[in-house]
Specification:
The protein is of the alpha+beta class. It has five helices and ten strands; from the N terminus they run ββαββββαβαβαββα.
Length: 183
């Protein structure tokens, strides 16, 4: 076969095809949402959410300062597009404090993100992808009863030249969860 005047042998074509497949696979993020504990009926689209601030993420002894506010901003961005209003917590609260704050802000639901795993790697140099594991729970703001929950995992693409970070993986996991539990 000729390619720009160069003869390419069948074995070389197979090798090139395999290389293209690996590059394509390396250039995509991977998402996994574990079983979603969904509500009996979908959460109405015009609901008011109170978003709790989680503790900052950590990997080993490294604490990722500010990761909690990045998570809340990502959750807010997803919820704002489909809800009546979003109120963000300004500090890490206990569940009792969050229930009180949610009631004061007239929220219908509490969105509680928990950073289970947060791993920011220099993927472009190490070949190790960034990884997150998030637990999302939605609670009734009046009673504190759990409405829906899930555990979501994501990892960045392997083929990168920098610029990817764990916070870039959060919106997709929130979107997948909200799409399955809300109108």
């Amino acid at each position: 076969m000729l390619c720009g005047g160069i003869v390419i042998k069948p074995t070389l074509r197979v090798f090139l095809a395999i290389c293209v497949m690996f590059v394509g696979a390396a250039c995509s993020h991977k998402y996994k949402v574990d079983a979603i504990n969904a509500p009996n009926k979908l959460i109405p689209a015009n609901s008011h959410y109170y978003v709790m601030l989680p503790k900052d993420g950590q990997y080993g002894t490294t604490e990722y300062i500010g990761s909690s506010s990045m998570v809340v901003s990502a959750v807010e961005a997803v919820l704002t597009g489909r809800s009546g209003k979003v109120t963000k917590a300004i500090s890490v609260e206990s569940m009792e404090e969050a229930l009180e704050s949610a009631k004061l802000s007239n929220s219908d639901y509490i969105f509680r993100p928990i950073i289970v795993h947060w791993e920011d790697r220099a993927t472009e140099w190490s070949g190790r992808p960034d990884r997150i594991t998030m637990r999302y729970t939605i609670l009734d703001a009046e009673t504190g009863d759990e409405i829906a929950s899930t555990l979501a995992r994501a990892s960045s693409k392997w083929g990168t030249f920098g610029g990817d970070h764990p916070q870039d993986l959060v919106p997709e996991t929130v979107e997948a969860f909200i799409n399955s539990v809300a109108e």
